[in-house]
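User: Teach me something about this protein's shape.
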Amino acid sequence: MENMLCLDEVYISHVPNPDGKFLSCLSSARLLRLYLSESMVACCNNAINFSRLIDLIFVTNKPVHWLEPLIFMLQNSPKLKILTIDTHGSPACSWNQPSTIPQYLSSHLEIVRWKRYQGKEDEKQLMTYILANSKCLKTVKIFSDDLQECQIKELESMPRISASSQLLYSNAKAAKAEWDF
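Assistant: First, the predicted structure itself:
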């Protein structure tokens, strides 16, 4: 792993005991598909720069506290254009809004896809933050089987800095057809 200088695509589903050194090896990836586990949460606190990352697929398939590791990844991915989130089975987390607006939000992020969005408070706060600070945002697609009309209205009423961005909705099963989860 240490000699991998330039990775294009990395898919990480289970690593028994990852550490900061392991995560450093992934820092050159352009596409990173990360299945978050408790052991992975522990190593997501180092200041590793994902300088080439343009596409992040962030999946929680176990009940882990996902928000802090996601924010860590986002703050350290200055060229991120596509963010895909799947918060399946995750508990609610506390939100600590970053003190500065990360570079990817202000100048690069174009697409956000969120599978199994439930409208929990932490999800709403993150979505509000993304919409309010993403100048280049073109599309936000929410995949959910349980999205209520009031939640859709709430999403649509969130302030957006990118006036041309679109909010799109679909059921979670349609996500499989759109991209392989």
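Now, about its shape. The first strand starts at residue 9 and ends at 12. The chain has one domain: 9-178. If you'd like, I can walk through any region in more detail.
User: That's plenty for now, thanks!
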